[in-house]
Amino acid sequence: MDRGRFKKRYYTYIDLRNKSGYIIHSNDHKDPPPHGLKITKGNAYNVFSRKFVEWALKDRIARDLLAWVQDTLTPDEHYWATLNNLFSNPSLKTPGGYKGHPDKRPSFGRYIGWSSPVHKDRCKAGRYIHNICTFGVLDLPVLWKRNEIIANKFDIQYDPIAYKCMEELILNNSVEKRGVSRRPLYRRIAQLGV
Prior knowledge:
By secondary structure, the chain is of the alpha+beta class.
């Protein structure tokens, strides 16, 4: 993990007039994380129980961590992961926190196709932006069978048919009250504390 993401302060500059912005890297060192927490890098996209969200909003340690991450480079990538990492932070009382090693934590929140040899079969459409696959029609058969709740990413300008097909599939599932087809899987994962 790149510890520089949270060892120094980062500032966001937003120019409202020109509708632009950028991140300012500083040499200002941050204090260590609050409550002796060990920072964990993880996914910025997650699925949480209501109990977890209520805890994160009210718990002093969770709120102190949120205040601490505000001037880090990618707070969304380590705030949630740290709160869920009971392996490295056993003092946390996170509802549904993961007790296993964080690198072994299964994830079903988001399906993504990175531009890497490991994910080479995840992008049939073959278009990458910032090393992330933009899914197209050729990717739909795989996406329909995936367990993840979110597929990242589609671009209506690049492949409007793929976008519309996914939109129609979700609409049809809702109208026909099919609901979540993989509910037993999600229940099993929730019981494991993932």
